Amino acid sequence: TGFDSDNSSGDFSEANHKVPEMLDLDPHQSSRTGKHNGETEIQENGIKRHRTSLPAPMFSRSDFSVWSILKKCIGLELSKITMPIVFNEPLSFLQRITEYMEHIYLINKACSHADPLERMQAVAAFAVSAVASQWERTGKPFNPLLGETYELTREDLGFRFISEQVSHHPPISAFYSEGLNKDFVFHGSIYPKLKFWGKSIEAEPRGTITLELLKHNEAYTWTNPTCCVHNVIIGKLWLEQYGVVEIVNHSTGDKCVLNFKPCGLFGKELHRVEGYIQDKHRKKLCVIYGKWTECLWCTDPTTYETYKKSEKRGGEQKKKSVSEEDIKSENDEADDMPEVQDTVQFIPGSKLLWRINCRPPNSSQMYNFTSFAVSLNELEKGMEAILAPTDCRLRPDIRNMENGNMDVASREKERLEEKQRAARKERAKDEVEWHTRWFHQGTNPYTGTPDWLYSGGYFDRNFSDCPDIY
């Protein structure tokens, strides 16, 4: 895939072995990449090597109190609250969205399957993998400025991606990605509604995500689960995803229903995902199970039900042996931070759909970034000449935080926010309406709901009328 430590452990290494074969990229693309990036390091196979660490280690948050800021915000929408930079991670939310593409080999796998059930299985795995990078990522991405953009072209992975902050209040981020082989289109708009509930911060995702497999003339839509960060006042921060995600194939009528389970009283359901795929007649075709932090499997419904019944019979004896003291002890731990060390219980005959990539060994000193995330804000030599002036890589507060200059980053963050407020007041004074550059409001053609659609033209690189936001 072009990076050293981005393959999953064990025997499963789809990302390493399958992607080049499926993409079938023009061999001349590698040489174009090398020429375009000048002095960028090139591997022997001709693929550009991306950086594997950040310029400076993560800044310690231990001396800062979240409570001093959030105690006045209980039950309120957090998008309007200014947070100190120490609680951020050095990425914009637009770059965080781009992490959906980390497991793009699952889209390539879906494109390659002739069987619609196997395509849905791969799409379901992709939807789960899209939230996997959030595991242990308790830092807050920077709120994008109105008009901010981010582009990413990865010839080694076979896609290009563009996103834009199309609204500030409410904050809405629109994105569009396409396969370099013209095999898929992936797009959507996201409006994360953040609320503080005393001990936790909840991010409820709003907006539709759409994946089109062009070869099969199929379109899938879904919405991400709710994300919640616990222990924001005291204790160790931990994160969970919960809620029901429905993936609909608008061509066949098939549907995948995934239940991201809340951790529960004793934390035994933490990170677990269970669901099924059904056809348009509501007949269950397969069952999917696993953890969004680890892996995802599928098996046929009969095998799954038989296993669950036998597991339930075997669990009765275990329940009887648990004392009240044990329950109290477990409950106390669950209030602090549930720790479930066991891996997914394998059901014989199951097929592995996806496994999370190994993180770099220094990930804990880099905001728990994946190898893919580490590369997102990399500013290579010559890039500034071709990037839009609104690109996240050029944003000074994020750049300074990444380099460890926290005081400068904090001042730059305040300056940019004040500049944005001044520009908004000036537009209101002159009665000038803000116009987005690369996306426009419309209707999702498959769900009929409001959506932001890509207007096209970004990669023609005519940036003459881009706003001055930095």
Automatic annotation (TrEMBL):
Region named Disordered: 1-39, 308-337
GO molecular function, one term: cholesterol binding
PROSITE patterns from the UniProt entry: OSBP
One GO location term (cellular component): cytosol
Coiled coil: 399-433
Gene Ontology process terms (BP): lipid transport
Keywords, comma-separated and alphabetical: Coiled coil, Lipid transport, Lipid-binding, Transport
Pfam families: Oxysterol_BP
Record's compositionally biased regions (Basic and acidic residues): 14-29, 308-331
Bias kind Low complexity: ranges: 1-13
InterPro entries in the record: OSBP_sf, Oxysterol-bd, Oxysterol-bd_CS
TM stretches of this protein: none
Family, per entry: Belongs to the OSBP family.
Name of the protein described by the UniProt record: Oxysterol-binding protein
Gene source species: Machaerirhynchus nigripectus
